[in-house]
Design brief:
InterPro entries: BtpA, RibuloseP-bd_barrel. Belongs to the BtpA family. By secondary structure, this protein is an alpha/beta fold. The protein has one domain: Alpha-Beta Barrel (TIM Barrel). It contains 9 helices and 11 strands. The relative contact order is 0.14.
């Protein structure tokens, strides 16, 4: 039995993305509509996701493009405001992700009471955002300094838009990450948001670290979720819940309900 049952309430859990619009300091922030509009749109998406039956929600500054690896204070402050205003309406366990800054994600988790964080905690990469370095030892010590040791850490070991500088296979990465860092989960991704996670990669990771929770992190859809969840312990789902299945759009409640109805049927089959 994994921690998913205790924290999220079910195995084969679906964590739904609540993508926040551009925030103050971001290039595409709408100064005229302001933060009130950001909160209003986040509320709309959160409601659609929860009414559709998702197991959990992950708040992310997905539209803070292009991303920073050393996120500015104003971004964390804005995300804290959004989650704070929505707190009384959040009915499912939630996590946070301040792209792409692990320590700032933990700061936000500590401030909001988030149950988990998804981030790039380990590795050195050549990426669209330049050379991307991490310091997992310092990050975990920061977590404990904050008193956030109970926050579950979801390690993304296949970062989007990036590649390990060293030539390492996925099995080696997964095995050494688990041995050295004791992650609560590993996330396996496609190239970008909405890109299907390679099922063979998922299988390789799960086989090499069978005792660790493994998530399919991108591209899980109605036509592939059974294959993905037959291997993975859960999935992080964003784009497929959007209007017309497009990353830029807001959440479509009907798509969420259709997806979650089928996921629940699948989980019932596994329980028989």
């Amino acid at each position: 039995m994994s921690w998913l049952k205790d924290i999220i309430g079910t195995e084969k859990a679906i964590i739904a993305m609540c993508h926040l619009l551009p925030l103050p300091g971001d290039p595409y922030y709408d100064h005229e509509k302001g933060m009130e509009y950001v909160v209003e749109m986040a509320r709309k998406d959160l409601q659609a996701l929860q009414d559709g039956g998702v197991d959990s929600v992950l708040f992310s500054n997905e539209f803070s493009l292009p991303y920073l690896t050393d996120v500015k204070t104003e971004t964390v402050a804005a995300m804290g405001r959004v989650i704070g205003e929505l707190m009384s309406e959040i009915r499912v366990p939630f996590g946070v992700n301040v792209l792409w800054d692990a320590k700032k994600s933990l700061d936000l988790a500590a401030a909001t009471g988030a149950s988990f964080v998804r981030e790039i905690f380990t590795g050195v990469y050549a990426s669209d955002f330049g050379t991307w370095d991490t310091n997992v030892g310092e990050t975990i010590r920061h977590q404990y300094r904050l008193g956030a040791e109970n926050v579950k850490l979801l390690f993304n070991i296949v970062p989007e838009a990036a590649k390990y500088l060293a030539d390492r296979d996925i099995e080696s990465i997964a095995k050494s990450t688990v041995f050295n860092n004791r992650p609560d989960a590993l996330c396996v991704s496609g190239l970008t948001a909405g890109e299907e996670t390679n099922s063979q990669l998922l299988k390789k990771v799960k086989e090499i670290v069978p005792e660790t929770v493994v998530f399919a992190n991108t591209g899980v859809r109605l036509n592939n979720f059974r294959d993905q969840l037959s291997v993975a312990d859960g999935a992080v789902v964003g784009t497929t819940f959007k209007v017309d299945g497009k990353f830029e759009n807001h959440v479509d409640g009907k798509r969420v309900k259709e997806f979650m109805d089928q996921v629940r049927a699948f989980r019932s089959e596994l329980a028989q």
